[in-house]
Amino acid sequence: MTKIMDGKVVLVTGAGGGIGRDIALAAAAAGAAVVVNDLGASLKGTGQTELAAQKVVDEITAAGGSAVANADSVADPDAAREMVDLAVREFGRIDAVVNNAGILRDGFFHKMTYEDFDAVVKVHLYGAFNTSRAAADHFRTQESGALVHMTSTSGLIGNLAQANYAAAKLAITAFSKSVALDMKRWNVRSNCIAPFAWSRMISSIKVDTPEQEARVEKLKQMTPAKVAPMAVYLASDRAADVTGQIFAVRNNEIFLVNQPRPIRSVHSGDGWTPEAIANHAIPALKADFMPLEVSADVFSWDPV
């Protein structure tokens, strides 16, 4: 029986564990040859071992699939290009890139260092650019390709002590939309997933209150394997008409996430003064202000 990813070659970054590992395993099980990338670093991006990626490759090959390991950093554009080149050398082509690699350096904004902001943005946002740009030339030549980027409700909605991570993750959605527009003429698609899954990436969430502790316990019920099918679908030809979208996957639920659009306006024929804005514009608009919420306020019900 034909599988949904037969004949395809996929690069999955940050695939040594967590969500990335399950996506790599699921892609291989669906028929794809997989480049398994993982720096093998700590959650903060320090230290390195090549074992993480190779262990996943061993799992794939033991199950009868095809895979090769890569232990480079997505934050390095030359290394990102090597990941794509490795796919082409080993398997003859590249059909999809899943940008999953990431690090966390959480901290309240007034305590956050430049280095911690820079490091997180480099891995998440620059990493997505580096691998996507490396694949773009191949995609254009073959007039097909798929990019799947991991965003987060920390960026889409908000979260405490994650200004660096939230900034990078929301930026990825704008990046994805722009790539989808630019690459449409070559049948190249770009979409985002905001995953809900208990993994190393979110195990460092600050737990300062009983409410936060309860939320973490709910998150632990959601396994990375629940996210993988959506990523594999978006990387496949079955998603040929799906591009520029943001999805969230939460246990057995799939959400389509809205994107910023004007929701209300006010007009003054004579233009606005600061006083007129204070007296008329803001009172008229205020009923539609977005509340200062965190992700748990919006996704407040138990996972199903």
Automatic annotation (TrEMBL):
Alphabetic keyword roster: Oxidoreductase, Plasmid
Top-level taxon of origin: Bacteria
A single GO molecular function term of this UniProt record: 3-oxoacyl-[acyl-carrier-protein] reductase (NADPH) activity
Pfam families reported in the protein's UniProt record: adh_short (PF00106)
Alphabetized SUPFAM superfamilies for the sequence: NAD(P)-binding Rossmann-fold domains (SSF51735)
Its EC number(s): 1.1.1.100
Protein name from the UniProt record: Beta-ketoacyl-ACP reductase
Protein source organism: Pseudosulfitobacter pseudonitzschiae
